[in-house]
Amino acid sequence: MNQPTSRSETVSVPGLWSTVAETPWTPILRDYETFLTSVRQLATPTVRNYMNDLTAFMTFLDGADRLDDIVSPDRRQLRSYLAWLAAHRYEKSSISRKLTALRIFFGWMQETGRIENNDTDLVAAPRQPKKLPYVVSETEIERLLSAPDTGTTLGLRDRAILELIYASGVRVSEANSIDVADVDLKSREMRVFGKGSKQRIVLLGGTAVNWLNRYINEARPKLVSRQSADALLLNNLGRRLSTRAIQTIVKKHALAAGLDAEFHTHNLRHSFATHLLNGGADLRVVQDLLGHESPATTQIYTHVSAEQARKVYLNAHPGTNLSRSSKRRSEPDAL
User: What is the pTM of this model?
Assistant: First the structure.
């Protein structure tokens, strides 16, 4: 999808976002980026997303000839912005995210005394249909894990990547940042840094440990270079694998395994959580392993845990006990 472009001349601005117009907003946006990075200590991809969402709003202001007005938009202007995004065919989820970014930004503007009023909380985000996560079966996961040719260096690396993500449920950005020192194969634990650079410990199953051990001892020494001596996952040039490269690897083997074309790296995370719940894991445990702040985020996976619910029902409900049912049927009805 083509993004709407600004009519103003754009210049490169130091920071994580791409380009914005050089306007009175520019120094404020630089200060805000510093705030997100240094004070809030958000992860680099998160800061980039916040700044890019604000860039879209600056483009809207530019089109309305209001780019020189450093004021908080009122409800009417905010509704116009949301309508503008919809007209440019942004998804409802993207529109909601951009509105959230505005709320945080103008909240910061108000707290720092740059504006007096902030109406961003008075405008509702567009309603979105609840999307259930795409989860594959354990049989399909087995096909995916077996797809790489482990007789080759890169194939062995790819198998280790797939096993690592499925066994631990880490995000692709977390997998990308793992160092060798973060992995303890003996204790079957791995340290990851999630959103907001928050550290947590995830667990690794025996199968994942075996494949990681093979990769570290057999394949990684053939790939490692001085540039990335600490990184766990390396590309064929000896550098740390990028998140995009990991996504490409997962997509490649998913297609080879005959999975849906929509399958991507995050679906491994979805499947990890769902299969744990199907196996009887406590929701709070799964929440901790995934690094979710709220249990509400994790509860979306419970919809696919019907198998576990059925087992609990069959084991606990007296009406499912055949011997009791037979006994009741043999007794005469009470009148």
Answer: 0.58
CATH number, domain containing residue 75: 1.10.150
Give residues with Cβ within 8 angstroms of 205, minimum separation 6: 167, 188
Length of the chain: 335
92, 114, 191, 266: which one is catalytic? 266
92 and 206 share a domain? Answer: no
Does residue 301 have an active-site annotation?
yes
Give yes or no: 114 in active site.
no
Residues 108 and 220 in one domain: no
Per-residue pLDDT, 270: 87
Count of CA atoms in the C-beta half-sphere (13 A) of 91: 6
- Does 132 map to a domain? no
13 falls in which pLDDT band (50, 70, 90)? very low
In angstroms, the CA 246 to CA 321 distance is 49
For residue 130, being part of any structural domain is answered with no
